Fold:
Amino acid sequence: MIKALVVRKEGEAKPVAAVEEISLDQLPEAEVTVAVDYSTVNYKDGLCIGPGGGLVRNYPHIPGIDFAGTVESSADPRYKPGDKVVLTGWRVGEAHWGGYAQKARVRADWLVPLPEGLSTRQAMAVGTAGLTAMLAVMALEDHGLAPGHGPVLVTGAAGGVGSVATAILARLGHEVAAVTGRPDTAEYLTSLGATRIVAREELTEVTKRPLESETWAGCVDAVAGPMLGRVLKQMKYGTSVAAVGLAGGAAIDGALITPFILRGVNLLGIDSVLQPYANRLRAWERIAKDLPMDKLEAMVQPATLSDLPGLGRDILKGQVRGRVVVDVN
Ligand code: NDP
Structure:
């Protein structure tokens, strides 16, 4: 028997999540069985633990979109018992049972070998949020961003994606301006390497102005909504915004075409879920190299399976700071 966070839903009632014991043969069929060490809590996990958000199709369900652990058995030649692996995305924890259990059974294609120098705990301190932050930074670099070009804006900075993006960009030598709606996180963000704190309210008013002063050399945006509409108008000529999330709304409120056609600004979409394997490997290797592990540790809030229902509610309200690491054992 193994421990797992199981979400059950009866008829029209709201889903209920609780720690239960399940037998191994209840796990889905797939090539690789992993003994999970750690999982984490992303925004999507909040949805899958709680309301479902259209992501979970079948109940009972085991959420957990990320996990890291050790291969226990594998019917695929790419993996053997004892290998350390990490999994993010591929709709694991949404359409497939995920990492909130002591064991997970998944397809070999979905796994990535843990990069040299990264522990399973550190991999989950990174998780989907951190991987996405790295993919965003890589996309900005691929479109010309380099240190010395000017301040790089990170929105939703005290959240998971934002915290990791702030630490990586600062480590790479960028000047980082962190947008937060929580003034009490200023010290935390400065400790991650932000040199400027921007109050959320400064960027949430929808304006009709076609352009504003050229301010930012790049942006990692986890928020969208009115903030992304404003930020686009403040980008320097020829720079890019990596659009990662929608914590502030699913539209780009007040956006005009002017930044694109008068300043050659790029809006780069970032998806971590179906990201091809080669780029995942590249991102995990860059994380092991370019994310300072002491800064990562400063983001970590430890948790256990029984903390997850509460943490799921908190992350949906934007109240989780940094990254949660869940010890599932
Ligand atoms: P978190 O909840 O940890 O962080 C989101 C942050 O956004 C909050 O901490 C808060 O930061 C800010 N925020 C919340 N609500 C608002 C609001 N109404 N207006 C402005 N800012 C707000 O989530 P994650 O960092 O894990 O994820 C961020 C977003 O990225 C989510 O939308 C998520 O779905 C998406 N995502 C997308 C991925 C992809 O593959 N594209 C992968 C991972 C996440 P502060 O308190 O500092 O203001």
Remarks:
- The pocket of NDP is lined by residues 42-44, 128-129, 132, 156-162, 180-182, 185, 200, 222-223, 227, 244-248, 270-273, 315, 318, 320 (CB under 6 Å).
- Residues 42 and 129 are 7 Å apart (CA to CA).
- The longest strand covers residues 32-40.
